[in-house]
Amino acid sequence: MLSVEETIPATEAAQIPKQRGDSLLETAVRYAEERHWDVFPGTWLEAVDGVPYCSCGDAACPAPGAHPARPDWATQATGSATVARRLWQKQPSASILLPTGRTFDALSVPETAGFLALARMERMELTLGPVTLAPDRRMHFFVLPGAAVKLPDLVRRLGWSMGSLDLVALGEGAWVAAPPTRFGSRGAVQWACRPTPANRWLPDAEELISPLADAGGRARESPGSHPARGVTPVT
């Protein structure tokens, strides 16, 4: 099974966003500059008596410090490293959010199904794109744009119904939070499969849908299993 602590060779480490150490500003700039991903700043965390609260002001915010800060966020997203630097200089604590439906879509599944699928994909020797693991216990598999449109038909062809699987395709108009964005006190978004030069070219959703759907079905049949428990969190 892939680990979020997997070792990256030194020749690749200089070309990918680091999991820890870099500031949010520098990491956002590197996503734009080296991966050519659009980025935009989201909300951020503000401490009140030592407790982190979302800058949106909602005490019951479901994703504190990790969601868009303004309704027109799509127009704010940029692929320019220069513009990204300027945006985060205005608010260095802002979360890093990546719009989907542009350079990639994302297949979102619960972490239990995600780790089952990762194990199977590794055995199948499938080439994966980046995969995130968020504190809300969902994983996002980056795939080529267009997945959101194709997903229902792909699922039906495998004999599943969309209602039977907790599998969502995020495309145009949606977004994912990128490492090292934090969800309040729950921790930070991590890489379950890091961006490297080897996975710069993303897979099509059709290549991953079978193991993801199968893992989703198995996870629902065995809701008490937690294959992610052996993973050491990266902060």
| SSE ordering | HHEEEHHEEHEEHEEEH
For the residues shown, what is the average pLDDT?
85
What class would the helix/strand composition place it in?
alpha+beta
Into which percent range does the helicity of residues fall? 25-40%
* SS strand fraction: 15-25%
Order the strands across the largest sheet as they lie in space. Answer: 8-5-7-6-10
Q: Number of helical segments?
A: 7
Helix-strand layout with pairing:
Blueprint: H1 10-13, H2 24-35, E1 40-41, E2 45-48, E3 51-54, H3 73-76, H4 81-90, E4 96-99, E5 105-110, H5 111-124, E6 131-133, E7 138-143, H6 147-157, E8 168-170, E9 175-177, E10 190-193, H7 205-221
Antiparallel strand pairs: 1-4, 2-3, 4-9, 5-7, 5-8, 6-7, 6-10
Tell me about this structure.
The protein is built from 7 helices and 10 strands. The protein is an alpha+beta fold. The strands form 3 sheets. It has a 5-stranded antiparallel β-sheet. Strands 1-4-9 form a 3-stranded antiparallel β-sheet. A two-stranded antiparallel sheet has the order 2-3. A hairpin with a 4-residue loop joins strand 6 and strand 7. Helix 2 packs antiparallel against helix 4 (81-90), helix 5 (111-124) crosses helix 7 (205-221) and helix 6 packs across helix 7 (205-221). It starts with 9 loop residues before the first helix and ends in a 14-residue tail after the last helix. The model is unreliable at 1-19 and 225-235 (pLDDT under 50).
